[in-house]
Design brief:
The chain is an all-alpha fold. It has 2 domains: about 10-205, MFS general substrate transporter like domains (Growth Hormone, Chain: A, Up-down Bundle), CATH 1.20.1250.20; about 225-420, MFS general substrate transporter like domains (Growth Hormone, Chain: A, Up-down Bundle). It is built from 14 helices and no strands. The chain has helices spanning about 1-10, 15-45, 50-65, 70-75, 80-105, 110-135, 145-170, 175-195, 215-235, 235-265, 270-325, 330-355, 360-385, 395-415.
Length: about 425
């Protein structure tokens, strides 16, 4: 098979392997660090966790990806990317070490969140640089395969890092600070791995750099505005993104609910709650994997719009049926179902946007997509913070989510029947 042959060629490319090693270590560290923050906010014995605290943590973890992302590329096209990996990962290691000391020092929450925000903001530069560097280590004929292998491997590394953090925490680490320091060590390893790449290998070419930073930033802002205008002219893409935003909101609200249930309603100790949360995350991840397997087959038969309708309608029925029991077993089943639904809708949305949007606008539209995707999740956490009681049992929240799923399914059906969605 050509794909298998291309993959074999990729792994023989020395510079590709070295760049992939930087990605794997960096994203593994991300997984460790993010789980460490989550467990500190939700499961520390000395903290009385609230939905508002969870919403704050999600904002710190996700919002930098949205608002820094579109402008990160401007600076990445001015700095040597190898140096971004080196100094960026060293900086994250130092900042993460600082976070660990803040945890041990029991400082005010705002100082802790400021430290965590700094780490996640730098992360956006590293991830964008990894994607921008691929064409410098892979020939054009195998770039599509490289773009498939690298992000997927990075996601698996982040998941493995999160699992490692759960294991270290449950194995009896003295505090969340120890897990954060593990993440700092992995960031440092990623920095050292970048030294195996040539200083100028990854670009950018000096003669291609826009001379004035202010002009580059202004052109990026204008590009995002033109992306919004283009999206308004491409009804299928705009409507798919609107549906994806609602689905992401629902997933975020239910995530906060499950966190609170694991912490207070289902277990009597922090360790048991953490173990149950790890199980829920793993089951939801299995749902994401199932969606990746099912989606190409279903989309080929009913189209991306049809697959979106199937996913959302299923969630409208199963979310209240499983969620209103507020018992571990049904909600773990719901975690799998909603993993399938959320990832299935995202895959379908990606397909619709790629087909409907002109190639010259895709980068800008996907930057906007990233903003909608993360802001919806953080907004959901904020709404859940207002609605959830301390133990996480909220009939009103489950009913709201079910109504949003049902309304979205009906709307998608009308759009598809009217020809406004593929």
């Amino acid at each position: 098979m050509p794909a298998v042959r291309d993959l074999r060629v990729l792994v023989r490319l020395t510079d590709f392997r070295r760049l992939l090693a930087v990605r794997l270590l960096s994203q593994c560290a991300d997984g460790v660090y993010q789980v460490a923050l989550a467990t500190y906010v939700v499961f520390s014995p000395e903290k009385q966790t609230s939905p508002a605290a969870i919403a704050s943590a999600m904002a710190v973890l996700l919002l930098p990806y949205s608002f820094v992302g579109p402008f990160a590329g401007v600076l990445l096209d001015r700095w040597r990317r190898r140096q971004v990996f080196l100094y960026g990962n060293v900086l994250r290691a130092l900042l993460a070490t600082g976070t660990a000391f803040l945890i041990l020092s029991s400082v005010p929450d705002w100082l802790f969140y400021a430290s965590a925000l700094s780490v996640t903001a730098v992360n956006r530069f590293v991830l964008a640089g990894l994607s921008a560097s691929l064409p410098r280590v892979v020939d054009a004929d195998r770039l599509v395969m490289a773009n498939s292998v690298s992000p997927t491997a990075g996601t698996l590394a982040a998941t493995a890092g999160g699992g490692l953090a759960f294991v270290v925490r449950l194995a009896g680490a003295d505090s969340d600070a120890a897990v954060v320091l593990l993440g700092a060590g992995l960031y440092l390893c990623s920095a050292l791995a970048s030294l195996r790449l040539g200083r100028d290998l990854l670009g950018p070419d000096p003669d291609a750099v826009q001379p004035r930073l202010g002009a580059a930033l202004a052109s990026t802002a204008r590009g995002l505005v033109s992306g919004v205008r283009h999206l308004r002219q491409r009804r299928a893409a705009g409507r798919a993104l609107a549906a994806m935003t609602v689905i992401r909101f629902c997933y975020g609200a239910l995530t906060v609910m499950v966190l609170m249930l694991c912490r207070y309603a289902w277990t009597s100790t922090e360790a048991d709650g953490l173990a149950l949360l790890g199980l829920a995350v793993g089951i939801s991840g299995a749902g994401f994997f199932a969606a990746a397997v099912l989606s190409p087959w279903v989309v080929d038969r009913v189209g991306p719009g049809g697959w979106m309708i199937v996913c959302v309608a299923s969630a409208a029925v199963l979310a209240p049926a499983l969620g209103l029991a507020f018992r571990p077993a049904p909600i773990l089943v719901a975690a799998f179902v909603l993993g399938v639904v959320s990832q299935g809708v995202k895959i379908a949305t990606d397909t619709v946007v790629q087909l409907a949007v002109d190639d010259s606008y895709r980068g800008r539209v996907f930057s906007l997509y990233d903003v909608f995707y993360n802001v919806a999740f953080v907004g959901a956490a904020g709404i859940a913070a207002l609605m959830l009681p301390p133990d996480g049992r909220s009939v009103a929240l489950v009913a709201l989510v079910a109504a949003l799923y049902a309304g979205t399914a009906v709307t998608l059906f009308r759009w598809k029947r009217g020809g406004a969605l593929r």
